[in-house]
Every structure is written in structure tokens, then in C-alpha cells.
Design goal:
Blueprint lengths: L1 H24 L8 H6 L11 E4 L2 E5 L21 E5 L2 E4 L5 H11 L11 H5 L16 E5 L20 E5 L26 H11 L6 H8 L63 E7 L29 E5 L18 E5 L7 E2 L3 E2 L4 H20 L1
The structure holds calcium ion (2 copies).
One calcium ion (CA) binds next to loops.
């Protein structure tokens, strides 16, 4: 009797397990459309070293106008309207491109950045500047630096674009000399490369078989796959008093504090990555994106994988050809640009590098073979070099 009871219980359990297996084998109806399923596909190839796969999806890009009329987060007009965007997946570099990485590119190819060469009027005219207005003595190799010795007594922050008072075009400033002649990157090989313009970034990434992220790809990645986040790590700037990225503490530009540990660039990966494993996706240096900048782009941008407008227009400087930059830098703070917000947009003359602008690369499925071929070429060069 006792034994038969056990058999009965055992039989019932067996029937339940069998039923469960049958239920598990019946596929659950997938409510997603075919295009949504395709967009959220897993990585089609093994993920390259130093990159992460960002699974595609749909998200709401940009910001809604501020609920609080005081606009404490300093949302800007060019971030509106918030709009739906769908992106296929892509791989993204986990970190900004470093001086060490850029140095290898220069060693292998002999590449010279724009800031290292004496520009001609014709060169400068490409960014929309009237070459005839440029005096002869301004045609020197130079780049833009933050002026640490600006006159504090005459600084006027009430005029538009007041920030120009603290910037200067410095002859001799380039990626090897971030503050100009006499400065060096010797102890900063793991810092992001700076003083690279948009074309320099594209040249490096071409060599790597990568490309610049589109603005949508950058924002989607920064927001951990398009989540509703003010910052890549959440909605509080300093959760529990912890600094989450390299930005400026104190009243910009008068009061410069290094409470987060860094006055200028920091070694990449000095702060925690976001959930996707992306480091410095906010802060440290601004990062070039593929897209031309137009302040009004979001009103009419395509919803499928937008790649930016066909030309640029910045109402602050009409006529100058600008590309998008994202993520903010060590010079951003609460009383100026708040560029470390996930939706904050910035723009830069595509020919001008600065002391706080760098970049990182992405690869997509269509570009994967080109990426592999470029990497094979670099690997072969490294082997040859090691034999010398
Ligand atoms: Ca800092
Ligand atoms: Ca950054």
C-alpha cells in the first residue's frame, strides 16, 4: 500500500514535469514585428577586443522641454523634440582612443594631423571661413586650448558665446603637445588623444576598419540601449556623493577644482563604465560623431538609423561647417554646458581640434569584413616591426 502510494505520487510528478516540458517546447507568441526582431538580433560575429555589442532597438532620442521653467539641467533647444528612433545593433569601442593607440597609427602610416600642418587659406575655407579675411600671421599650425591665464577681471558672462573669452588658438598645440609648445604626452599615453579634428578621427578609424558613431548611436549607447536616463549611470549626478565622470567642479571658468581627481584629461577607464561597459561615455573628452550638426535636425530626422542632415547649420555661427560632438568633457560643469547629460548636443568646426575633444569608433555588421581586413593588416605590420 505504502509502495503503491509512492508510485502514484511519482507518477503524478512525472505527468507534471512532462506537461511542463511540453509547455516549454511550445514557442511563446512573439508580439514583436519581423523588423523589430531583426533589429534586436544578437552579435553576428565574435565581439572584437576592446569593443562591446550594442543590441539594436527602438528608443526616444532627445529631450522633452523642461518641466521646471527654471530648467535646472540646462536643456537646450536643439535637444527637442524627443522623437522615436530605431537602430540596428553595432559594436562600440569601450573607451576613447588613447594617445598610445593614436601613436601606433602615426608610426605605421606617417599620418600628420591638421593641427601639425601650416594651413592654407584654401584649407580653412573648407570649414566655411572666408580665407581672404585671414591675416598672413594667422596661417600657422595651431589648435584650440583652454586659456588658463584669461583676465578674470574683464570676463563678461552676460554676452552670447562668452566662452570664447577663455579659448585661444594656440600655435604649436597638437596631439603631442596638448597645452602647446613645452607640454608633452609622455606621462599621458593612456589618456584620450586630443587636438584631432573630425578628419583626423575619420583617418584613424579608417585605418582601424572602423567608423565614427552616428549621433543616434552615441546617445543610444550612452543611455544603456536607449533607457530614460539623464546620465549614463542614472538620474542623479553624484549618487551618494560619488563622482561618476571627469567634469569640472566649481564656478566655470573662475573656480577650478579637482574634486573628481582630475583638472584636465584623465586616463581612460578612470571612472565606472555604464551598464553596457562603456567608459567615459560622459565626461573626460567630447567625442566626434559622424553627423553634420543642425540645431533643427530632430524636427524632421528619419526614424530609421538617422545619419544626420546633408549639411550643417549652427544658428550661433551660420556658415561654419560643423559636426556633432557628444558626451561632455573635463571642462563641462553645472553652470555652463552640462554636456555630460545623455541628450546634450555639441557642435564643432570639423577642421578644428581642441584640448578637450577626442573620439571612439564603432563597427557594424556590414562593415565587419572591412574591419577584419584592416586588423589583419595592422597585425602583419606589428609582426614585421617585432622582427626589426
Ligand atoms: Ca575633473
Ligand atoms: Ca567622453
Amino acid at each position: 500500500m505504502h509502495g503503491r502510494g509512492l508510485w502514484l505520487i511519482g507518477g503524478a510528478v512525472f505527468v507534471m514535469i512532462a506537461a511542463l516540458v511540453v509547455v516549454m517546447l511550445i514557442p511563446l507568441p512573439d508580439s514583436r514585428s519581423e523588423s523589430e526582431k531583426a533589429i534586436a538580433a544578437p552579435a553576428p560575429h565574435p565581439t572584437p577586443d576592446g569593443m562591446v555589442w550594442i543590441q539594436g532597438g527602438t528608443f526616444r532620442m532627445g529631450s522633452d522641454p523642461p518641466a521646471n521653467p527654471q530648467n535646472p539641467d540646462r536643456l537646450r533647444q536643439d535637444e527637442f523634440p524627443r522623437h522615436k528612433v530605431q537602430l540596428p545593433g553595432y559594436w562600440m569601442d569601450v573607451a576613447e582612443v588613447t594617445n598610445a593607440q593614436f601613436a601606433e597609427f602615426v608610426e605605421m602610416t606617417g599620418y600628420q594631423t591638421f593641427a601639425e600642418k601650416t594651413p592654407t587659406r584654401k584649407d580653412l575655407a573648407r570649414s566655411g571661413i572666408d580665407g581672404s579675411l585671414i591675416p598672413e600671421d594667422k596661417l600657422v599650425a595651431a589648435s584650440v586650448v583652454f586659456k588658463t591665464d584669461f583676465d578674470k577681471s574683464t570676463l563678461n558672462r552676460d554676452i552670447p558665446q562668452w566662452e570664447y573669452q577663455v579659448w585661444e588658438v594656440k600655435p604649436g598645440a597638437d596631439w603631442r603637445h596638448p597645452e602647446g609648445p613645452g607640454s608633452s604626452i609622455e606621462k599621458r599615453m593612456d589618456h584620450p588623444v586630443v587636438h584631432v579634428n573630425w578628419e583626423d578621427a575619420v583617418a584613424y578609424l579608417d585605418w582601424q576598419g572602423k567608423r565614427l558613431p552616428t549621433e543616434a548611436e552615441f546617445e543610444y549607447a550612452s543611455r544603456n540601449g536607449g533607457k530614460e536616463l539623464l546620465y549614463p549611470w542614472g538620474n542623479e549626478r553624484e549618487p551618494g556623493g560619488t563622482f561618476m565622470c571627469n567634469y569640472w567642479q566649481g564656478d566655470f571658468p573662475l573656480d577650478r577644482k579637482d574634486e573628481d581627481g582630475f583638472l584636465t584629461t584623465s586616463p581612460v577607464k578612470s571612472f565606472k563604465p555604464n551598464e553596457l561597459g562603456l567608459y567615459d561615455i560622459s565626461g573626460n573628452v567630447w567625442e566626434w560623431c559622424h553627423d553634420y550638426f543642425r540645431a533643427d535636425y530632430y524636427a524632421n530626422s528619419p526614424r530609421q538609423a538617422p545619419r544626420g542632415p546633408d549639411d550643417s547649420h549652427d544658428p550661433d555661427e551660420p556658415g561654419i561647417v560643423k559636426r556633432v560632438q557628444r558626451g561632455g568633457s573635463y571642462l563641462c560643469n553645472t553652470n555652463s554646458c552640462t554636456g555630460y547629460r545623455t541628450t546634450a548636443r555639441m557642435k564643432g568646426d570639423f577642421l578644428t581640434g581642441t584640448c578637450h575633444t577626442g573620439f571612439r569608433g564603432v563597427v557594424d555588421a556590414a562593415g565587419y569584413d572591412r574591419f577584419r581586413a584592416a586588423q589583419d593588416k595592422i597585425a602583419a605590420w606589428r609582426v614585421e616591426k617585432s622582427k626589426k
